[in-house]
Amino acid sequence: MGPSVRKLYVQGKEINGAGINSSFAVHQDVDGRATDVALGWSVALGSPFTFATTLDMEYGSDIFGKRGILLGGIHGIVESLFRRYTENGMSEDDAYKNTVEGICGIMSKTIAS
């Protein structure tokens, strides 16, 4: 990942908005400057956007975002559900509807909470 981060940093000097976003978390701020220091590092690294986070938020983002989306977890679940429904005699239209509801219904309830 290091070379790609550097490439985007260099690009950011030439193209407004290029770069890799950063996040930071402050668990304990002894002298009241931790957020300023973290933001300073973000600017020095060339991040176009920086946001505050927590360990819990990073964990959730990693598990659901990276594993579930980027590495194909959701795709695999959808494909598996669709196959199971159609192999058990459900029409493709109904299998699609049930698969979408099986994935999006849970997410909709989670997001709405």
From TrEMBL:
Residues of the KARI C-terminal knotted domain: 54-113
UniProt keyword list: Amino-acid biosynthesis, Branched-chain amino acid biosynthesis, Magnesium, Metal-binding, Oxidoreductase
Gene3D superfamilies assigned to the protein according to its UniProt record, in alphabetical order: N-(1-d-carboxylethyl)-l-norvaline Dehydrogenase, domain 2 (1.10.1040.10), NAD(P)-binding Rossmann-like Domain (3.40.50.720)
Pathway: Amino-acid biosynthesis; L-valine biosynthesis; L-valine from pyruvate: step 2/4; Amino-acid biosynthesis; L-isoleucine biosynthesis; L-isoleucine from 2-oxobutanoate: step 2/4
Single Gene Ontology BP annotation: L-valine biosynthetic process
PROSITE patterns: KARI_C, KARI_N
Cofactors, names only: Mg(2+)
GO cellular component: chloroplast; mitochondrion
Family to which the UniProt record says this protein belongs: Belongs to the ketol-acid reductoisomerase family.
Protein name, as recorded: Acetohydroxy-acid reductoisomerase
Organism of this sequence: Turnera subulata
Organism lineage string: Eukaryota, Viridiplantae, Streptophyta, Embryophyta, Tracheophyta
